[in-house]
Amino acid sequence: MAMKTLSAKNAAALDKDLMSIGAFSLDQLMELAGLSVSQAVYRVHPPSRGRRILVACGPGNNGGDGLVAARHLWHYGYKPTIYYPKQSKNDLYQRLATQLKNLNISFTDDFPTALKETDHIIDAIFGFSFSGEVREPFPAVIRALEETRIPVTSVDAPSSWNIEEGPPKEGPGANFNPEVLVSLTAPKPLVKYFKGRHFIGGRFVSPDIKEKYDLSLPEYEGIDQVVEVGNNGQKL
Amino acid sequence: MAMKTLSAKNAAALDKDLMSIGAFSLDQLMELAGLSVSQAVYRVHPPSRGRRILVACGPGNNGGDGLVAARHLWHYGYKPTIYYPKQSKNDLYQRLATQLKNLNISFTDDFPTALKETDHIIDAIFGFSFSGEVREPFPAVIRALEETRIPVTSVDAPSSWNIEEGPPKEGPGANFNPEVLVSLTAPKPLVKYFKGRHFIGGRFVSPDIKEKYDLSLPEYEGIDQVVEVGNNGQKL
To answer: What does the similarity note say (chains A, B) (predicted)?
Structure first.
């Protein structure tokens, strides 16, 4: 049985619905998305496997999810470092960055050096709204993620991948295969090219929205904000 | 060893700090506070003990925490019912209520009947900013909470209790002893009059704020958003 997925267009429409008829603020949704990511990282890479987490954040909402995840991971006892080269002037993202600075979490501009000093990487560069080509300074970052042997958890999409068609045929990302993917709200079509551990996060979808977008979401357990699924989209 | 507590005045100042120098939005803080409450309820009253949860919400932030907790509890598989007689015109609270209506969660005006049809109660009526006397329509609600044998989880303070001095000498609340208390951010002085199970929630305090307010917070475990403590404030 193939997994039901949410196209890039429908993912954008669903997000809009969550904030209009759903009455969620972006602050709330991003808090819960980042919390999901932090719980998946705790599951695949508990603190006993190394506390250093490098969080690579892009300029948009995917980067915001990474900033929130980093804060929760700090509270769990990890030592995050943030690579956030294109910081948005948007008030919410600025506040999320300040929240990290208040925890004395360090920000770096030197991705290659940071990569040598981490135990795990969160790829929060591009999400479901990515299309076209990878812009500066991210091509070198994507190439470094392709080459590193440090495990990577991607948020919503392996950065550089086309949401519908998966990895690019050539250029940065053509050989990028993260170990872990956290699909937010629902998996996107690119999951059929993904071979690692797959989690669904974002436990805030109402029955109406589930029906409108024909989502087939696995059941979360207990108070978990993530659920691990197999290739067929069923709970593992 | 006595537990370190946070006076009503300092609790208000700390909240203000979280939103100014801390750069948190009220949406974020309320989301995390309500999440903490939902996790404490799951711990003391798992779904196997009965899924019906009556959430009594007051007009302010304490009520907002209750609305958020109710949403998370629905996602955990509970059946919440909301008593929210003084609904605020504040945009955030209205959105939190809409989020519940989108889950088909029912709102009731009839507290006595709702009390007969629940397995657990969340008291989110008044929090650390309460002082003076209990206003209509809440005196009858507090009396009902005093008399019921259904277990009650209070958010931040047993409603009607003075934040510094505990239960009122007479009138509604003089004999109100909830089974569970979730202190948000840090315990208030009233905890020395409280005899039930005590949790701390709100895992977002920075080292600076901890130092400024001389808080002695127990360590949370793993990804938990609550931690249970004993009479001395130490983790159980």
So the answer is: Belongs to the NnrE/AIBP family.
